[in-house]
């Protein structure tokens, strides 16, 4: 009976949905799931704000895999749909073999070239699927978008990214899809674009991470289009011949609505998916973390700002300067941050959320008064149960902001984007589950229960039903003070398009409405960007004395951006204003206007007001940079300080950052500064930006190397990068200087060890910096003389010295090496290194000691000795390796098995065959199975590979855990820990916490080894949906009465299921009353096992087994 009732229930829903009109492209028809009742059922699981209700507005098949959406003024919805995830839109984590190609790519063409170099056979597969734009329409105005058109598709070129940004304005539809910014128009009203234009091209130089695409399209207060890109970089030539090039980071851009005058507005971002302006025209974004224990950030996108991220940091296990120098922390978050955070970056306002995605600023109509000035941010975490929409506001703090009223607004839905319709309702798109898209998608509408709020939204929708072009100037002027920002802005833009200078000036100067005055100033901003109409700003000069500080600030902003030179004196005067926002815009204007006479005032402000205000400090730097750029343009020497030793620490720091931006070699003078912060900032700039003429000065730095790791790393690496004999001598001096820290000396030794290797990856920042390997005959002599000092140093330095001497084949050290090997008081690491060194430098003398160490009491020494013996005497190695397999520790057994594969002898093949037979008979410890398989496959022997095939077939039909059973035992816990915290492909710490380190998206794993056995741990990796961790397992129940109940399973017995509903209510439902149930899915990527080798999975399981005790670790400064 249950199945019959259930079928009738579903059939009713399907029949209802099947009446929806659906227009598909006859050429490209992706697989999309059919309509169902799931979208409506899911609402039961949402945690909805009090006084609000949620309705389903659209669902599959009319929407699938929605990334972003936008409204037009008729209330229609444009949706960015993606079908190319992992089918052309790739990710370095799945292709680590091409990482170096990606890191060195400078153009989109470079990326195309290396894709085809590695995978010419994939051209067809990687271009088979499209991203596209779907247009949804509610034709009968019943709240359901029943009609769907394919507005535009064909976004399937080899280098095409995810289409992730959409904006409609006045009939034009803008779309961001790597590598292009597009504009479309539907001229005949058939729901499909028939005109398309490429506005800009050259975005997405690198792959970096999937999802780090072009997005964030929004209309700025100046009437320009703003958009963003993640850290896939860009390299493009714009119409005036200038090149905008940063292939290594994310950025925000702006351009006119016709695509002209493209500007880089801000950079140094990782993945700023959406942008939003507040009522005063300030721009903000949520930027994602790097999966290394760092936190996502709420960022004020100040013009010209550098947020500090570079994509190559991702591939350093500790993320390099990003974590070491605490770039992602808010300003002065604690003492350590205050001490080490660079001055060239603009710190975030706060650490907020885990997966910032869609973002919108409340327009002013449709919600309770509490939400005036609030933002709504989608927090995407891969599964609905811990994702949703956050809300918060900004409060002025100096020239910047601080976060207030932060809370989870609407929760338990996997939101990708959020926006307000012209009806004042909040809409959001639901990805449904996972990370890759499951060919489903929904758009929901939240609306208030209070009629007055509904009515206010309806009135706005009604306004937009009449074209603004058809309205009188008087009516448009009245709209400049409307409660809804979209109405105000649309009126502003229309007035600007009519060149209504006189009317706008009248409002700006004489209106009693602050909002109307602000929009009038912005309207004049639009007009004055036309060179022949710049004089429109002349009538705004009296506003520099206005009592409203915001009005003064906006005038400074506008005249600076329009390069209105006649306002230079007023701008200088505004630098003395008591309001920090006025000073902020005035300082930026000084740079844009190149007001050299303001230099001393800017330097003074850096000391008096910029010291404790990072946003104001940034503006002052922008002012100085503009003045310096003006000097450079006339081939003058950049002189921002009359004397590099003059001024205060903070004024000199501002100058250093300005010189960094100018890439001026004069920055090297500040390496001799008396203030450590100035020295470190100079070193960062010279090294990280590779200011070539200043690099020798950094390499020969003679100051104190003990006060900053940031400095010493760069001094050491500068010597390595320059690679001359004098640089090697400097590194030896550092390594042997016992007054320096152990860390510094080890860094110098590491550089010497790599001297001739020609590594292409920078050791400090991870950037691709090719360095030709050198034979360096001088190095042997330089190092030989220093060995006695190094052999008296710490054991770690001794070990490095041993390795370096062996690498350089300094045979004189053989007696010392023999002493080390036999020294039972020495560490096993040092003894092993010495034994390996003997093997390299003493061909015959090493044999006796190698044979003796095969019988050592220390497993590591035995293992190393066997490896050397097998390489030296392969014909005699069989019995030695067999003995290790029979009697050694597990690690020795594993190593001996792998050694067998390197020997070309029938005896060793017989040993492997015997081991395989034991495996088939379940007579060999499971911890050796993977090693035997790998060794047998490496021999390419037909008999052995046949036995491996038989073994695999024995378990192929089993569940996923059985297929990976070789990973249950035998892993290396140390390697597993490195994998968990450092591996870019696995990214475990991205979502999981272990004793306070990592991300809070998934379950805390601090005690997972105590609570679960190996089988469960392995299953959670290779089949994450088999058992979802307690507190993350959601379920949707349908009772026999047709009622839908959703929640997290608290307890389940044979008789009852107890659920915790979204609002915290606990309900108990009898099993006999349940008609059907649909379990939620894990947010962990289902294919995570494909990103690792079986050996890595085995190591990871071994590490997870050790997690048996949760340690108390204080969380720091994180907004939840």
Automatic annotation (TrEMBL):
Pfam families: DUF7133 (PF23500), HEAT_2 (PF13646). Coiled coil: none annotated. Residues 1-23 form the signal peptide. Residues 971-1108 form the Cytochrome c domain. The keyword Heme applies. GO terms for molecular function: electron transfer activity; heme binding; metal ion binding. PROSITE patterns: CYTC. InterPro entries: 6-blade_b-propeller_TolB-like, ARM-like, ARM-type_fold, Cyt_c-like_dom, Cyt_c-like_dom_sf, DUF7133, Haem-bd_dom_put, Membrane-bound_put_N. It comes from the Bacteria. Keywords: Heme, Iron, Metal-binding, Signal. NCBIfam families: CxxCH_TIGR02603, Piru_Ver_Nterm. This is Cytochrome c. The lineage of its organism: Bacteria, Pseudomonadati, Planctomycetota, Planctomycetia, Planctomycetales.
